[in-house]
Amino acid sequence: MWEIVTKVQIGKLQMLDNFAEQIRDIGITTVDFSEKDAMEIFNLPLHHRDLFDRGLLAQARRLQLRLLTSDILLGSYSGLVDVLLMS
Asked: How many domains does the chain have?
């Protein structure tokens, strides 16, 4: 949610007023970013330097989740990431 709100504020993304409610309604669960997630960043190689993406990667790694993205650069973290090619 942090990255989504930031992208809305800088004009890179549009979001409906009830976005958080819609996310919950379709069954997506959000996970709070913790101190443990921040510390997990130390265990990631520097393939990608974006603060938000590295946080998401660290969290996915710590919680044994997969990160779904269209960012090809994140594909370097092949054990954590599934890249969707958008056409």
From this structure: 2
- Looking at the structure, tell me whether residues 19 and 46 fall in a common domain: no
pLDDT digits (tens, 9 = 90+) for 26-75: 887 788 999 999 999 999 999 888 888 999 999 999 999 888 888 888 88
CA distance to 5, 12, 19, 55, per residue, from 81 (Å): 22, 23, 24, 13
The answer to whether residues 39 and 24 belong to one domain is no
Entry pTM:
0.74
Q: How far apart are CA 1 and CA 32, in angstroms?
A: 9
Q: Are residues 8 and 26 in the same domain?
A: yes
- The residues pairing with 83 across neighbouring beta strands, listed in sequence order, are 69
